[in-house]
Design goal:
This is Glycosyltransferase 87 family protein. Keywords: Cell membrane, Membrane, Transferase, Transmembrane, Transmembrane helix. It is found in: Cell membrane. The chain is an all-alpha fold. It has helices spanning about 20-30, 35-55, 65-75, 100-105, 115-140, 155-165, 170-180, 180-195, 205-215, 220-225, 230-250, 255-260, 280-290, 295-320, 325-335, 350-360, 370-385, 385-390, 400-410, 410-435, and strands at about 1-5, 10-15. Strands 1-2 form a two-stranded antiparallel ribbon. A hairpin with a 5-residue loop joins β1 and β2 (about 10-15). The longest helix is centred in the C-terminal third of the chain and has 28 residues, at about 410-435. The chain starts with a strand and ends with a helix. About 40% of the residues are buried.
């Protein structure tokens, strides 16, 4: 490869373009600096290194990643996934049931090639890179800052800073600590909805379908794609999900039938719904009603009622060209409506915080304090680790005092308060416009 340059005397010279130079030019177009890549890749390298050391020293790394790996080994050995509360390949310190769809076991097969602790390191490395990708796509979906001197005017620098800072959020570090896949699933959805489907690509919806095949909650984004006019992408997502489940029906028919007829509705395999860590409406209703037999049904009813304003708010953001905000409405509604939403599922706080911080410089002077307080409150909720400080476990949550109940359900209250503020502000502005338009 060559390029033409002008010499001082006007003569045109032809110089070879080395692979290194070509790489630098490509990174420049993407606003990604080699130094940023080196810094960002340090955490994944450290994670894999820690996994290898943990394997050599027999550390207990990644309870959930150990279950993922055990599910893959069980599938490869031809043993049943759901017949018992534990799997034979699980280490003694991670004896938990396999609660995921059969497709998840198939997609976890690569983890079976490495020891348990190394599998944790690999998942951690991928998770950190997935979070960085989410942050980069989030920044790219926002309006460019007016003031180029702002530090976030450089997507590469902002992605690097946010990626490091966001490791301090409880949902993020707990996902990493447990060896969970929440950050990876979030990246699949964000890239699909905000990039691939947004460009009307024929691949739109496929990543959402894959995410839903691993954990069922991402099925909400099939509805999101459909309601936002991406109906072909929604159909592809549903077809991908059904195709993967159909494949498992051919491979392991007994396990697949058992999952969809019994296991999928058995929340007891996941854990007690009233635990403090379950930050869903179902968990809230069971806590405040002292495990009343109608609590879960009441949670479903409340979720159905909340679906109306949620769809309205989501479509309003979508029609105003705010695709990220619309996606976040769907994501947080899914967390509220899901029967089980452990605190580490709330990694959607990452793009939300990026969005809130990016809006601060464009705030009018009179409203600045409100946005600063609101943004600070959201960050405080997810960085405070309040769920770890409050007394919990052994049914203690059923006897919380009022103030403990407020703090212990902070994740649930946060999107509800934000939505209430947005709807109230819209109503006040609408009333003001009507008043101003009325003849005097």
């Amino acid at each position: 490869m060559t390029r033409s340059v002008s010499a001082p005397d006007g003569e045109t010279l032809v110089r070879p373009v080395t692979p290194r130079l070509a790489l630098r030019k490509s990174l420049a177009r993407l606003s990604v600096r080699p130094r940023s890549i080196i810094v960002l890749s340090a955490v994944p390298v450290l994670a894999i290194t820690a996994g290898i050391i943990g394997w050599l020293l027999d550390w207990r790394l990644g309870v959930d990643s150990a279950v993922y790996r055990a599910g893959a080994l069980t599938l490869l050995h031809g043993d049943p996934l759901y017949d018992s509360s534990t799997l034979a390949p699980e280490p003694w310190w991670a004896l938990l049931p396999f609660t995921y769809p059969p497709t998840a076991a198939l997609l976890f097969v690569p983890l079976a090639a490495v020891p348990t602790q190394v599998a944790w390191g690999v998942l951690t490395a991928i998770s950190v890179l997935a979070m960085a990708l989410v942050i980069r796509v989030t920044i790219g979906s926002l309006p460019k800052p007016v003031d180029d001197s702002r530090w976030w005017s450089s997507p590469a620098r902002a992605t690097l800073v946010f990626s490091v800072v966001m490791l301090g959020l409880e949902p993020v570090w707990r996902t990493v600590f447990l060896g969970q896949i929440n950050l990876i699933l979030m990246a699949l959805v964000v890239v699909d909805v905000l990039v691939i489907s947004a460009r009307d690509s024929r691949a739109g919806g496929i990543l959402v379908g894959v995410a839903a095949a691993v954990k069922l909650t991402p099925l909400i984004f099939v509805v999101h794609l459909f309601l936002t006019g991406k109906r072909k992408a929604a159909a592809r997502a549903l077809a991908t999900f059904a195709g993967l489940e159909g494949l498992m029906l051919l491979l392991i028919p007994s396990d697949t039938i058992r999952y969809w007829t019994k296991t999928v509705s058995d929340t007891g395999r996941i854990g007690p719904v009233h635990w403090a860590g379950n930050q869903s409406l179902n968990g809230l209703m069971n806590r405040v009603t002292d495990l009343a037999p109608w609590a879960s049904k009441a949670a479903i009813g409340v979720s159905a009622l909340l679906a109306i304003p949620a769809v309205w708010l989501m479509l309003r953001f979508h029609r105003r060209g705010q695709a990220l905000a619309a996606l976040l409405v769907s994501a947080f509604f899914a967390l509220l409506a899901s029967p089980i939403s452990w605190s580490h599922h709330w990694v959607w706080a990452v793009p939300l915080i990026v969005l809130l911080i990016a809006r601060l410089p464009r705030t009018r002077a009179g409203d600045a304090w409100r946005r600063w307080v609101g943004t600070g409150a959201v960050i405080a909720v997810f960085i405070s680790c309040v769920l770890l400080v409050l007394p919990n476990g052994r049914n203690i949550e059923l006897h919380w005092k009022f103030w403990q109940g407020v703090l212990g359900n902070a994740y649930i209250l946060m999107p509800l308060v934000l939505a209430a503020v947005l709807v109230t502000r819209w109503m006040l502005r609408r009333r003001r416009r009507i008043r101003e338009a009325a003849p005097s």
